[in-house]
Design brief:
Helices cover 43% and strands 10% of the residues. By secondary structure, the protein is an alpha/beta fold. A 5-stranded parallel beta sheet has the order 2-3-4-1-5, with helices on both faces. Strand 2, helix 3 and strand 3 form a beta-alpha-beta unit.
């Protein structure tokens, strides 16, 4: 099954591609193992995920896209500049993933369009996965019917990893890109930098580039010097 591209239908003005490397196998679940099983096996037609930034909501939605052939992954914040009519035709797919659902809160036309989309996907038997920063009742949505539809299936709160698992996740991400990240360096980053996964993974990208440029392996002294130079703006 190939997912080099993404079926989005004729109406959608943007082609949201699935990022390479985002799979269930390289998502460290921590206490979220049940969620992985549900998404991997597609034994629920509707699933809603919520949690703070960096817990892996987008990762899991894009991993879910790899379980079907005709799919759409849509980041709603990037669609708001367009007419809600861009959602037409999604009921012809196998799976639809809606990310950043909180971004439509207070946009009446978009809330109604998403409510209608839920109805069409249900009637067509299309799988739906959605994600937001908060529980459906706390997203700030004004359309009660849309909130109701977000409760059609199980709602899962993604939990943050503990420090041990965060260090494992960093090392796993580094290994996937061919970078050796010793355990002591991973723990150093956890002690001295922002601890959310998004910030840590972004920092790993930066250190990977610095390591390549300097042709130097990642050690605590080297990482400290790179981070000090970044803070000085040099």
């Amino acid at each position: 099954m190939s997912h080099s591209g993404l079926f989005v239908g004729k109406q959608l003005p943007l082609q949201f591609k699935i990022r390479e490397g985002l799979t269930f196998d390289n998502y460290l679940p921590g206490t979220n193992g049940e969620i992985i099983d549900v998404l991997r096996n597609n034994n629920e037609p509707y699933v809603y995920l919520w949690g703070s930034a960096g817990v892996g909501k987008s990762h899991l939605l894009q991993a879910a896209c790899r379980t079907q052939e005709a799919v759409a992954y849509l980041s709603l914040g990037e669609l708001l500049a367009h007419d809600p009519g861009v959602l037409e035709g999604l009921e012809n797919l196998d799976l639809v993933c809606l990310d950043n659902l909180e971004r439509v809160a207070g946009h009446a036309l978009w809330e109604r369009a998403l409510c209608d989309l839920y109805n069409r996907l249900r009637d067509s038997g299309v799988l739906l996965r959605a994600a937001g920063m908060a529980h459906p009742g706390s997203l700030g949505l004004t359309l009660a019917d849309l909130v109701s539809r977000l409760h059609w299936g199980p709602i899962y709160h993604l939990q943050e990893l503990d420090d041990t698992d965060k260090a494992k996740a960093l090392r796993m991400r580094a290994h996937a890109r061919g970078l050796d990240l010793p355990e002591d360096v991973a723990r150093y980053l956890l002690r001295h930098k922002p601890r959310d996964n998004a910030s840590l993974f972004g920092l790993l990208d930066y250190l990977d580039q610095a390591s390549l440029a300097a042709q130097h392996r990642l050690t605590i002294p080297f990482v400290r010097s790179v981070l000090d130079a970044e803070e000085r703006g040099s």
